[in-house]
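User: Could you go from structure to sequence for me? I need the amino acid at each position, not a summary. Structure tokens:
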């Protein structure tokens, strides 16, 4: 993904790509030390300390993107926060692709 700071656009390896590739939610309390994310340049450069994401599926069943939250500190995601991410993912899937299919992780 890209972030524009002033007149400079910087590109980073996407953090959400892991969620899309796996096809199920990824909840990380400590991104700085998580095996999938600790070497990610966006985590270090942007200071992403924690990540919670759930995939959005096309009507074909293929993951097309994510709904996610990132915080600049290590954070223990509560069950309510995780449920909110999952609900937002299902809503986005319905809005974008018109599909009510139940995600594979349900």
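Assistant: Here is the amino acid at each position, in order:
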């Amino acid at each position: 993904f890209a972030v524009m700071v002033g007149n400079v656009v910087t590109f980073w390896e996407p953090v959400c790509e892991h969620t899309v590739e796996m096809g199920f939610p990824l909840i990380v309390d400590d991104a700085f030390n998580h095996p999938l994310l600790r070497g990610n340049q966006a985590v270090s450069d942007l200071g992403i300390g924690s990540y919670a994401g759930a995939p959005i599926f096309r009507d074909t069943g293929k993951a097309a993107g994510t709904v996610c939250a990132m915080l600049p500190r290590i954070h223990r995601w509560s069950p309510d926060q995780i449920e909110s991410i999952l609900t937002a993912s299902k809503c986005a899937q319905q809005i974008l692709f018109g599909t009510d299919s139940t995600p594979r992780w349900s």
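One structural detail worth keeping in mind: Helices lie at 17-22, 41-46, 79-97.
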